[in-house]
Amino acid sequence: QYQLVESGGGLVQPGGSLKLACVASGFNSEDYGIGWFRQAPGKEREGVSCISTAEYETYYTDSVKGRFTIARDGAKNTVYLEMKSLKPEDTAVYFCAATVLSNGGLVDGQISESEFDWWGQGTQVTVAS
Questions:
Q1: pLDDT digits (tens, 9 = 90+) for 3-45
Q2: Burial grade of 122 (CB within 10 A; 0-12, 13-18, 19 or more)
Q3: What's phi and psi for 98, nearest 5 deg?
Q4: Which is it for strands 10-12 and 123-127: parallel, antiparallel or unpaired?
Q5: Helix (H) or strand (E) holding 33
Q6: Angle CA 82–61–124, to nearest 5
């Protein structure tokens, strides 16, 4: 059974940092593209970042470039999303997901949510003073 479990969310002040973890079980996450998504209240879910398989190529949506970093730890079967310089608009439930696409889930240069078949339950990130 494929399972993804996110952790690391919480309440942080603007300008602060958090590091989210996505732990996979039941499969080798290095064989799958992994994406991070977020959904703010009243808004649609959006793709934030993704990482490919063999070459560990990464993608970031424009609003998080330079602030977020996605990385794999194969030994721990885990993908991290390190978030720095957090802003109130980063407040959302963050989800990780897995796709069979080796490029990390990109279609026409954008993260395609429909390409992801396995999802975690999400972790809440709140940025507020």
A1: 999 999 999 999 999 999 999 999 999 999 999 999 999 999 9
A2: middle
A3: -120, 145
A4: parallel
A5: strand 33-39
A6: 50
